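Just wondering, does anyone understand what follows?

——
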Amino acid sequence: MSQSPAPRVYKPAAVRRGEIIAAAAIEFAETGLAGTRLEAIAARAEVSHPRIVQMFGSKRELFLEVVTWVFDRVSEAFVSTATAHQANSGPALVALGDAYRRLLQRDRTVALVLLHAYAAAGDPVVRDEVAARYLTLQQTITDLTGADAMGVRTFVATGLLVTVSSALALPGKRTDAQWGGWLLELVTPVVTGRH
């Protein structure tokens, strides 16, 4: 007697969509936009290839959904840190930098997807979407910290160093994180009444 196939589990579209995005993030982190096959994403998400096409339209559209998901995770980390940091008297940029470093330590996929997003900017559609998300993130940093343009640029440049270090899985507590904290303190405006 042959075994009957396991019953198919039906999930709400939003749940399935989230599972596909999470699976796609892992695949895109490993092989980028050009190197990732939808079949690999489908296998990881335990859905059919046609289901992915039905939900997202194309590999590029799915990649852009993953990029949005990653930028949203970074923004959420910044917002929650800034909210918790309001009672603290230290530099807000340093607190956001620490939150970013911790996020990348917990999930290296974030660093890899960000680097693949920048690398895929040869595609004009990807470039425009990534640029929009990047600029929105810079505005979020400005809004949360009150930093001037130089402070935000320094923060983003330091973040790129931390992103590369995380993507390369460099060992231990990195001195570049200490250097980054020191650098961010240098560009943080002195607010009267803070020590």
The chain has one domain: 13-187.
